[in-house]
Amino acid sequence: MNGINILKNHYQRLTLINRKTGKVASSHDWLLALGTHAYLLNDKKGIASLLPLVKAQKTIKYNFLTLKKKRSGKDQTHRNLARQEARLIVPLLDDIYRSNLRSYQKFLKTNFCFWIKKELNTPHTKAHQLAKDMGMSYLEEGHHSVRWWMDQLKKMQS
Q1: What are the CB-based long-range contacts (under 8 Å, 24+) for 124-130?
Q2: Cβ atoms 47, 106 nearer than 8 A
Q3: pLDDT class for 113, splitting at 50, 70, 90?
Q4: In this model, does residue 43 exceed pLDDT 80?
Q5: Residues 62, 92: contact at Cβ < 8 Å?
């Protein structure tokens, strides 16, 4: 397909944008965007003939084609880094929590998660100091909910 070199940049993708609103078109999908690109280049032979060129012709009346930057992947987002930190610190917090339990108390996950939330958000506690010493800044400043901690425990079990 002629002009395919425009697609070689892995950090950009073809996107159909609505002319009126300036937002991504409701009919946008990658195949239609590729078909529109082929239609605009007047490339209708070979593999390009398999693309939805008729639909692209109709779509181009109300939309225009542009290159948009891809969103960053899941590797280094704050959420993912906080999850990684939680995976490392939960076993250590479990030891601290169990050592503070009285002999007649049962270990309940919900109570454990309430305890984690309270302890990590309170300065000068063992858990907060541990997180600080381990350099877990995403957990220190995150103020994650009890539900978030419950989800992290669930993910560690599976």
Answers
A1: 126/96, 127/93, 127/96, 130/89, 130/92, 130/93, 130/96
A2: no
A3: very high
A4: yes
A5: no
